[in-house]
Structure formats: structure tokens, C-alpha cells
Model the fold of this input.
Amino acid sequence: MLSVIGTAIFLYGLMLLALFTFQRRILFVPSRSRPDLSASGLEGFRVVETRTEDGLVLEGWWHPPADGKPSFLYFQGNGGHIGMRADKAAMLVDLGFGVLLAGYRGYGGNPGSPTEAGLALDAQAWAARVTDLGVAPDSLVLYGESLGSGVVTRLALGQPARAVVLEAPYTAISDIAAARYWFLPVRALVLDRFDTRAIIAEVSAPVLIVHGSEDRLISLSHGEAVFAAAKAPKRLEVIDGAGHTDLFQKGAVPRITEFVLTPPRA
Done:
């Protein structure tokens, strides 16, 4: 019996060690190959660069807005690279919006390795770059997809913007981890917390949350909790029948467009 208990304790400890050691490989799933703009199908975009405070040079893709239209500073989710958001970028550009697809460190051939602190530096560098491209704060939309919603929320604390749009946001990475690995004390192990719910209450720009009713990766309850924590003006748009990755195909774009063009004011 003691041998069985000892083996169980050993295996439990081994699981804890493995999860702690490899957690960033689970959270961040970049495609490290450099995306090819010429093969993306996007027209009118060009490659732009920014330099982070810690000295990394990152690449992104930029398309200027039509006269008078806002511009989206777009931060992607945890997988792939910016080239895999080409279809979404094209839909926004077709409506006249400017779009800067912001490349993360460690993604799409960019140097460095992703961490919460590192992505915060990336976001600050891209906010400075989009300003250099002529986008004023009252024309700037901070857009965060999934993991990027945590990046955007933190950026929005110090970056004036026309609006903040969070696509399928989460309350905190520790909450997701605790639900997935309920049998382990993972809250104490999480290195990159992205505590969106705690931060969102300090964001002063109008906030739009877009979430799919059938999202199985980050449940609607996360979006609802983030919405409840945000201060007005704010709006929650639940896309009926949408999951985690098909919001644009299921009707999110007109709702995003309406909010961005006429954001509510407190």
C-alpha cells in the first residue's frame, strides 16, 4: 500500500513539474515561419517594422484607411502568425478601415520568445508605430483576438483609443488552466497570467466584447465576466451559433463596424 501511495505521489509531482516546465509551449503556439505577404491574397498592404524597448525588431503588415475611417491595431490569438489572419484583415479593409496586423516576438519569423511581459512590450512598440503611420488616438481601434484580448487590455491602460474590441476574451489564463487541469494546483504555477478581468475595470475607452454562443475553447461565461467587470461605455455582442474561430463568418463584422464608427460615450 505504501508503495502504491508513493508511486502516486511521485507521478502527481511529475505531472506538476511537466506542466510548469512546458506551460509556455502549451500557451503560445507560434508558427515560426515568416508569412509571405505576396502570397497572402491581401492587396494594398506593406510590411512595416517596429523596435521594442528591449531591442527586438518585429514585422507587421499595414494597410492605410480610407479617408476619415478608423484603423485597427490587431493583436492575434496564441496560434500561427499574422498571415493566418489575412481573411479577417481583408474584410476590414474592404469596409475602408486601416489595419495593422501586429507581429509578436517569436511568431512569424520575429526574434525572441513570447511571454506576457514580452508581448506587452511588443504592444507598446506597435502602438508607437501606428502613431508614426499617422493614426491619431481618436481614430485608433485596439483589437485583441483570444489571447490578444489580454494583450490589448493591458495596452489600453496607457494608450488612448477610439475603442477597444475584445474577440472571445478570457477572465485570466489562470482561470482557464484551473478549469482544464482541475486536479492540479495550477493557479500557483502560472507564469503568464493575463488577468483581463482585473485590468479591464481601469480601461477608459469604450469596450466592445464579441463572443460566440458556442465557443468551446473559451466559454461565453468568460466574455460575460469580463463585460461585467468593464466600466461603461461598453457593449456585449453574443454571436449566436458561433464558436471560437468563426465569429467573422457568423455575423460579427457588422456589429464591430457599428460600434467602431459610432462608439458609445459615457
Summary: The beta strands are 29-30, 46-51, 57-63, 71-75, 79-80, 98-102, 140-145, 163-167, 207-212, 234-239. The helical segments are 2-27, 86-94, 116-132, 147-156, 173-180, 196-200, 220-229, 252-261. The longest helix spans residues 2-27.
